[in-house]
Automatic annotation (TrEMBL):
Residues 27-102 form the DUF202 domain. One of its GO terms (cellular component) is endomembrane system. InterPro entries: DUF202, IM_YidH-like. This is DUF202 domain-containing protein.
């Protein structure tokens, strides 16, 4: 049989995209789908937090706002950081699911990994930074 130009595409598609699985491991694939939905929910939470920050920080405008440091000035960059983190969490989740799916096709499984620790550290750092900024702006308003 003569090789075609699209043979690498067909090989990639049949191995990574269109999987046919036996009856027994259906629950493994469904569990993997639920895991991706968990990453999607986490990503959606960060995106909603970014929108809420943008709205609430814009509303918190004082009579004499600080031109350099205040709720109004910090709202847009903080919201952009949270939305960027939402995109990053979704990409990390998609990468992890794709890696797990490839391992399951070969009869292996990955447990743990850098993805979960990375998301936890990023969200903890961002939450603590947000808390510190809100306290700093609030203390500056009282002075």
């Amino acid at each position: 049989m003569k090789p075609h130009w699209y043979d690498p595409i067909v090989k990639f598609w049949t191995r990574h995209i269109s999987l046919t699985i036996d009856e027994a491991p259906h629950r493994d694939h469904l569990a993997l789908e639920r895991t991706f939905l968990g990453y999607l929910r986490t990503s959606l939470q960060f995106a909603m937090t970014g929108v809420i920050i943008a709205q609430l920080f814009t509303l918190q405008r004082s009579i004499n706002p600080s031109p350099t440091f205040g709720f109004h000035k910090l709202g847009t960059p903080l919201a952009a950081i949270f939305v960027g983190l939402a995109i990053l969490v979704l990409l990390i989740g998609a990468f992890r699911v794709w890696k797990q799916q490839n391992a399951m096709v070969r009869g292996k499984i990955y447990s743990g990994g850098w993805e979960i620790s990375t998301i936890m550290l990023l969200s903890l750092t961002l939450t603590l930074a947000l808390f510190g900024l809100v306290l700093a702006v609030d203390m500056l308003k009282e002075l």
